[in-house]
Amino acid sequence: xxxxxxxxxxxxxxxxxxxxxxxxxxxxxxxxxxxxxxxxxxxxxxxxxxxxxxxxxxxxxxxxxxxxxxxxxxxxxxxxxxxxxxxxxxxxxxxxxxxxxxxxxxxxxxxxxxxxxxxxxxxxxxxxxxxxxxxxxxxxxxxxxxxxxxxxxxxxxxxxxxxxxxxxxxxxxxxxxxxxxxxxxxxxxxxxxxxxxxxxxxxxxxxxxxxxxxxxxxxxxxxxxxxxxxxxxxxxxxxxxxxxxxxxxxxxxxxxxxxxxxxxxxxxxxxxxxxxxxxxxxxxxxxxxxxxxxxxxxxxxxxxxxxxxxxxxxxxxxxxxxxxxxxxxxxxxxxxxxxxxxxxxxxxxxxxxxxxxxxxxxxxxxxxxxxxxxxxxxxxxxxxxxxxxxxxxxxxxxxxxxxxxxxxxxxxxxxxxxxxxxxxxxxxxxxxxxxxxxxxxxxxxxxxxxxxxxxxxxxxxxxxxxxxxxxxxxxxxxxxxxxxxxxxxxxxxx
Length: 494
Fold this sequence. Notes:
The chain is α/β, with parallel strands linked by helices. The chain folds into two domains: 32-270 and 472-489, 3-Layer(aba) Sandwich (Aldehyde Dehydrogenase, Chain A, domain 1), CATH 3.40.605; 275-461, Aldehyde Dehydrogenase, Chain A, domain 2 (3-Layer(aba) Sandwich), CATH 3.40.309.10. The protein is 39% helix and 18% strand. It is built from 16 helices and 22 strands. The protein has a seven-stranded mixed beta sheet with strand order 14-15-16-13-12-18-19, sandwiched between helices. Strands 9-8-7-10-11-21 form a six-stranded mixed beta sheet, with helices on both faces. Strands 1-5-4 form a three-stranded mixed beta sheet, covered by helices on one side. Helix 1 (69-85) packs across helix 8 and helix 10 packs across helix 11 (313-328). The longest helix is centred in the N-terminal third of the chain and has 22 residues, at 125-146.
């Protein structure tokens, strides 16, 4: 098997893409940002701040307030007041208008949000622009449509909102995850305290400006920035009526223990180690493109990333060789360049974790193949990588890397494919590649994954539920199932 690091398998025709950087002038960054509480930006009573940086350049972008326990108290109190005084009793038609306004504002300012998302998180601008922002607006539009139809969403049930909802979102899709959580919560009549990830707080704070511009009543949405201590204060607050968390499995387990003591309604969307299963009768070229997208999209910073490739033994050698050739063509570099395929790793800490797991793969005997690319001198970068010769006992086959690293295994029979795919503590997503519909249905019935794609991967829709099994969490976001997480029976608590 050819190693692309030794001999570049890509023909050199003397052609290259000219730089096509997206202008940052559309973004007006403040030097400092406070907490968004009660409809206004306020100074943190903790007195603490932190800097958020551009992971592609390591340059400081802004100084952001770090909320403490007292600040969380203020935010929860503001949300409770807004819920009791007006939002709970606001007609669904009115709540819908607010959600429609938010969606339209996001569409009108999509370029600004996309550029800021790329600057703060490191993902390529074409992903922020073409994937994240359209989905963000779609979630607000979709749930606006449900806001005045809850009696149809939950027939034969008398439902009511929970009250104050605490929501914690991750750094890989900061704005999209906020939309996933905010839109259904608001549609159902809840108020929210949102905590963004400490490495990517800026688009949430820009969203706060949108909420203020559409005249959303003060206190309906409050945004408290900070790190783990801030999140812990929100999770443990006695006046929070429901929690929703997207992030690591380790932190999710801690939150689950805390919520269990109080019997608090909880939605957890955690890690994943998705298997992309390719049979010998698959459309090979299409499968290769989707496998590439499934693992290298957003630098692999995706909980449902197709980080394991299970390819049928009869086609494995040819498939992997062509996969490596396609990987070698990926353009790694400036996330703001419209030609870039793979951007910067989100943080130094995440880069260190990726590096450690890749080193463990080499030490355990797997064969590493990396794209032949020149990485920038500044910032956090990792070359797109493929491991062959992977055994089930290897850490790279069992642990979530959350980076641009693919582990390849082979199988002979559909039964073996199912066994290997399910041999994981996670159960968030999976992909099936075959021309036979019967084989797709047979596999889908047996794969222990919450989201299963057939002849595609990483496709999302606001009307479709998303969530997993086992250590990938529980509960669903999106669709009717996700809407149901934000209501309770009017006669008591779910």
